[in-house]
Amino acid sequence: QVQLVESGGGLVQAGGSLRLSCAASARTFSTYRMGWFRQAPGKEREFVATLSWSGVSTYYADSVKGRFTISRDSAKNTVYLQMSSLKPEDTAIYYCAARPRGSTLNRVDEYAYWGQGTQVTVSS
């Protein structure tokens, strides 16, 4: 059984910061790699960030590069998304998702499991 639980969303002013968390079981954390996606009203779900299988490299959407940082804490079976310099266009529901080894890192349909999402709202 795979369960992903996101937390850390909320309301923040433009230019502010938030840190999102995605907690998983030890088995899930070791078997899959986590990625972050987001979906704004009326728009398709889009890739935000993920880690390589080794955890050495990080990958980001161009829209968030330089502002967001993904990291992992294996002791806590948790992946984080640190978001800084937030913009109103970052407003969306943010989802944590898990992909198996060998899958494409930035495709929605390559991720096998999804959390319920956490709302991030950035005011202007």
List keywords for this structure.
1 helix, 7-stranded mixed β-sheet, 4-stranded antiparallel β-sheet, mainly beta, globular, 124 residues
Distance between the termini: 40 Å
Described by strand count, sense and barrel closure, the largest sheet is:
7 strands, mixed
General form: globular
The unreliable regions are none
Q: Decide which structural class fits the backbone.
A: mainly beta
The residue fraction in helices comes out at under 10%
- The H/E string reads EEEHEEEEEEEE
- Report the β-strand fraction as a percent range: over 45%
Number of helices: 1
Rg measurement, Å: 13 Å
What does this protein structure show overall?
The chain has 124 residues and is mostly beta strands. It is 5% helix and 48% strand. It has one helix and eleven strands; from the N terminus they run βββαββββββββ. The chain has one helix at 26-31; strands at residues 5-7, 10-13, 18-23, 32-39, 46-51, 58-60, 68-73, 78-83, 92-100, 113-114, 118-123.
Give a short summary of the structure.
The chain has 124 residues and is mostly beta strands.
